[in-house]
Amino acid sequence: MDYSMQDLMAIFAMQGFAGLSFFSVLLLMALGLAIIFGQMRVINMAHGEFMVIGAYTTYVVSEVMGGWGSWGAEYYILFAIPLAFLVAFLVGMVVEVLMIRHLYHRPLDTLLATWGLALIMQQVFRSVFGAREVSPSTPSWLDGAWTPTPMIYIPLNGLFIMGLTLVVTLGVVWLMYRSRWGLRVRSTMASREMSAAVGINTRWVDRLTFALGCGVAGIAGAAFTMISSTGPTSGTLYIVDTFLVVVFGGAGSISGTVVSAFLIAQGQSILEFFLGSSMAKVLTLLVIIGILMLRPEGLFKSKVRR
Amino acid sequence: MFEVTGLRSGYGQSEVIKSLDLTVGDNETLAIMGRNGMGKTTLFKTLVGLIEARDGKIALNGEELTKEPTHKRVASGLAYVPQGRMIFPSLTVLENISTGLETVKSKRIPHDIFDLFPVLHDMRHRKGGNLSGGQQQQLAIARALVSNPEVLLLDEPTEGIQPSIIKDIAKTLNDISEMRKITIVVSEQILSFTMEIADRLMVIESGKIVYEAPRSECDEQTISDFLSV
Fold first, then answer.
1. Residue A207's domain spans which residues?
2. Which residue of B69, B71, B129 is in closest CB contact with A306?
3. Which fold has domain B2-227?
4. Cα–Cα distance for residue pair B215/B200, rounded to 1 Å
5. Within chain A, which residues score under 70 in pLDDT?
6. Closest CA relative to residue A80, chosen from A136, A23, A27
7. Is residue A192 less than 8 Å (CB to CB) from chain B?
8. DSSP state of B156
9. Domain total in chain A
10. ipTM, 2 dp
11. What are residue B59's DSSP bridge partners?
């Protein structure tokens, strides 16, 4: 196993880039979960299924628009992304009204209830779309690669997903820290009672926060269709990693979520090449456990007295 | 006019407020004195809707608020400064004040709030959790005031605050009452503080009003006896 320096550089660049696509989907998932878990303390085990809702929405849009001729097949993704957000957002809102709002301050019950919800959603996916994995066709303008040197091959859809992630991340940061709505969310999470006492309708804040988290997971689903095919249980593959990102980053911190998603995705992707995927996972987990033992509040903790 | 009649409330099995009546006139400052555990905080939380009233009526200028959720009571003109201040520790001073603008049209912080509390302007980019107790109290009052309330409810504003700052708070409350012509209801244990600000004093004991007098006719010895254990 001798690698020349040049080989190593190319491996790092390509695995690093493969890691970046993984990072993008993981970050989109984790952003939604950081909003829901970090801010509301709701352990949403069905978060992966909201991603799958976005993925299936994308698939349906591609099928429908594909039937409209080549124009539809080329540009369906631009319509699928907002629609994936909207569908996951609305389903999230219904779930909040019917289930989650009865379970605030009961984290263990939410864990069980949302896990049950995940199973129900998986069965619904299976009944509607079948057990076989589906995959929308990639538009030709995203099918291909950028090859800066003969040894490095960077897929265009990966670049697209990264751009999408950047836009969504900036959007979430703006919403949380620059908008009136974000102020409501942050004050409600600091103190529900006191937020009501300054005139904030905290029920609506909860509802919209949960729905927004689900909507972002839906966008993650749209991105997911570009790197993998979608099946009824695709969400379960991501849920553990996503929780890992949120806890490792420091729940409630968006910058922490970004850094931790990057470290976990890159760590796994580069280690995978040399050690195989199981060993890479074991090693990443061990490192995270070690770091969390030293910093139980995650990488980024807030420094104010309470 | 802020009117409370036959109010009952409490937690679980225990009834803390037992058929309490009070009426506060416009631009009046009413102090409710009482030892710990006599029901001051429960009364205030019931008034603002954080605890549901079991019976009775709460009305502001004839509009009944008893069944309204907290945020609607705030929109109707109540503002609440809780015991222990409860500012949002992770939000900056400016953001903390902004939360108080929820029920008013303009979301821009009116600058006269910094004339009342200059220290908040100096600290405007700090996190609320990093202010001292006295500064947090000013922040909590500022946050309540920017909603342009008709009735300001203050639950033990002097608790845990050093004596020199208590005098400042008394002066500020008098300024607010004079400039804004609002009604203030304040709960307290420190008689010297209330004698500086209140038009009328009441004593609450085991959830009932047991003494009431305007400041000029107030027997300080009687109130002190109620306040001592």
1. 17-232
2. B129
3. Rossmann fold (3.40.50)
4. 5
5. 1, 38, 251-252, 301-306
6. A136
7. no
8. -
9. 1
10. 0.90
11. B3, B64
